[in-house]
Amino acid sequence: MHVVVIGGGIAGVAAAGSLAPSARVTLLEAESSLAYHTTGRSAATFLINYGGQAARPLAAASLGFLESPPPAYVDAPLLSSRGVLWVFDEEEIPRLDEIEASGREAGAGSKRISGAEALTLVDRLDLEYVAGAIWEPVASDIDVAGLHQAFVRMARSEGAEVLTNSRVVGLSRSNGAWRVRTEHADLDCDAVVNATGAWGDQLAGLAGIEPIGLVPMRRTAFMVPGSNSYSRWPLVVDAGEKFYFRPDGVQLLCSLAEEIPDDPGDPKPRMEDVALAIERINTATTLDIRTVSSEWTGLRTFAPDRHLVIGEEPTAPGFFWLVGQGGMGIATAPGYGSLLASQVLGGPVPEHLTTAGVDPSLTDPARFRS
Question: Are residues 62 and 17 in the same domain?
């Protein structure tokens, strides 16, 4: 069986790495390098208490791989302990019980703490802002580049072909087989995996498939000067998702945590977004940020119901969606790679996914078709 996976970000390489032991795989990437867009701009944290009903079980199912990846494919651990501190201003205090309860249910070890206790974790918080806090010790930084490279190595070790500068310009199906046209060559295959993120609906359109209604959302991040004394701070997240920040070496990685619809493309940071994030962080802390070292913007793409889209298009046999990961594309990659591979190959859902509570009906693209 020959499968063409389109898209070289984390979703595409997770699919390729999971499929390659059982199928011939060709991975196509439009850019000159893999992970140029969202994956290459992600600063992921593995959070148990985050995401929707479909994403959380996939994250739980991914934890085993992230904690103990195949040693042949990694050079260093993929996870490093971080922890998360949720901070609540007066406006967000009514959500404190909800977030604490969901974290306990998910196994995040969520514990309500006082502002004074929060200050022992992050000594630059402003207690005039922090009306309440939740501490979650079960959270880790993810080595995004290391995870992406692990899947690439898995795929290549099983004979997968990886082609960059290979933008797809046509898709057609005849006599049960697919033809994928790039700017340089045509490929015939048995199945196509659409892992193109923000471009997912556009790619489907090349095959005459109705769009799902994917919405790319801007999110800007930036670096500011920090200190070695900040190195053990947790990820600090405003409960209203008005900002977040965490240490990154001797700098602080900060974000407005915005979700602004945008077109598929290569978005650039807007200075007003960076300025608003700085204003909010300075209000909640005594950091007094004045200088920005670097900034970038990526696109997090959501389906209309904000659940991932994984599975075969009911109107086009052999065309598989792997899109709509939103902000959970890195943390859930091992899980959805395994799920997608089982669907393409026609096998049962892997046991470690069912054990984690993964329900394929929640991510099935058929939910968008009458």
Answer: yes
